[in-house]
Amino acid sequence: MAYKNREWLSWLKVIIISSIIAFGIRAFVFAPIIVDGPSMLPTLENDDHLIVNKMEYVFSDPDRFDIVVFHATRNKDYIKRVVGLPGEHIAYQNEILYINGQPYTEPFLSSRLNQLQEGSHYTHDFTLEDLPGEYEEIPDGHVLVLGDNRSNSTDSRVIGLIPIDRIVGVATFRYWPFNQLGLIH
User: Fold this and answer.
1) What confidence tens digit (pLDDT) does each residue in 119-137 have?
2) Would you list the domain boundaries of the chain?
3) Strand locations in 105-166, DSSP E?
4) Which residues contact 28 (CB under 8 A, 6 or more apart)?
5) Residues 119, 102: Cα–Cα separation, whole Å
6) In degrees rounded to 5, what are phi and psi of residue 168?
7) Residues 6+ apart with CB under 8 A from 12
8) 33-183 sits in which CATH class?
9) Nearest to 162 by CA among 90, 94, 108
């Protein structure tokens, strides 16, 4: 009888320790997220299942074009792409991103832009001053985010600049659907 009690206690310890480790990884290192809505098309689709790396920004700042998850409200997280970084001025004109007056290409939008009919717009023209807050440059500790589906995205054009401390992490890996399994770009 004593042997069975020791074996049961041994299994209980393994289960408890495993649960603590799993909780720690989930809380501090990686987290699953499910894409909700069309705002990141064509890069991400509604109901894509992703892994978010929560440790990425512990030792570094967001990079341009990272796909990040952030707390938009107390109860809602959004997933968007970082377009503008602290100290920069952002503008869009005639489907071209300008950062501090220099044009930048957005390769993840090239297929959509190539399909545009003459006279139509994918990203309507705007400047940083047009956004909530009316900034002349992105202040320290903030980023400008946009959805890849520019005509159907609630992003910095509507909600303003995002404080970096509200970023949960960077979306790094898609695990569902299986036919799109892999790293996210």
Assistant:
1) 677 888 999 999 999 899 9
2) 33-183
3) 126-127, 142-146, 162-163
4) 54, 55
5) 24
6) -75, -45
7) none
8) mainly beta
9) 90
**Residue found by looking up tokens 């400047």 in the block:** 127
If phi > 0 it is left, if psi is from -120 to 50 it is alpha, else beta; for residue 45 that is beta
Determine the Cα–Cα distance for residues 144 and 90; give it in Å rounded to an integer: 8
Chain mean position to CA 160: 15
The DSSP annotation for 63-115 comes to: PTT-EEEEESSSS-EEEEEEEE-TT--EEEETTEEEETTEEE--GGGHHHHHT
Which pLDDT tens digit goes with each residue over 50-84? Answer: 999 998 888 899 999 999 999 998 899 999 999 99
Q: What amino acid positions are annotated as catalytic residues?
A: 39, 80
Output the CA torsion sign for 61, 63, 68, 72.
positive
